[in-house]
Amino acid sequence: MFETLVRRFADLVRSSRKIIAFTGAGVSTESGIPDFRSPGGIWSRYDPEMFTIDRFLHDTEARKVHWKALSGDDFIPGNARPNAAHYALAELERMGKLDCVITQNVDGLHEEAGNSPERVFHLHGTMREAKCLRCGKGYPMEEVRRWVLSGTEIPECRDCGGILKPNAVFFGEALPEWELSESQRRARECDLCIVIGSSLVVYPAALIPQYAVQSGAKLVIINRDRTSLDPDAEVRISESAGKTMSRLMELLRT
Fold this sequence. Notes:
The chain is 36% helix and 17% strand.
């Protein structure tokens, strides 16, 4: 069954001219990055209420919890590297098939795997950088993590003393306007949308594949759990992202 489904997937890729990939936490779990909602996921260890923008801005204890968690390996392990699914998407771009990656992830692994930064749209921001909320100065997250690991409980801007915040979107924050509108536009113009590792339950990001389907694009879903768009999918594969995308690329290379 798996082989039949992947061969159908490969046929869809071959016949498509403008593909978008919509990725969620499941594309990065094989890189050692936990997802949020599964048993044993991040929200089974942390209270999501501690990760609202309001708590971060107004509660110093909450900021301490944030930075302790974000500077350890609970969210993004320091040794996390792209996996086969990330590399496959980068190869699809080099083949001229993939228009863009629209991701809910904040780990930056798509760019590390080789996707062009201008073709990756981060709907939930990125954990690769922190920014001062007063003067706007940016800091590489690895630098800020070193401060925390060396004893700084709440890192501040070295220029103005303002609050530093990861560039990820917190609960209660709006999604970045340009990334969202550009993602919507590209979804409406694609002819194939590949959903990888998302259960499509976090809105408004999860609307992106719906826009593609409503505009006539075909849909492929690679996800272990069921999604609300399964009935609309031409191909639905419940195997891992790495296994599926690796086999896809083998078929496309022959």
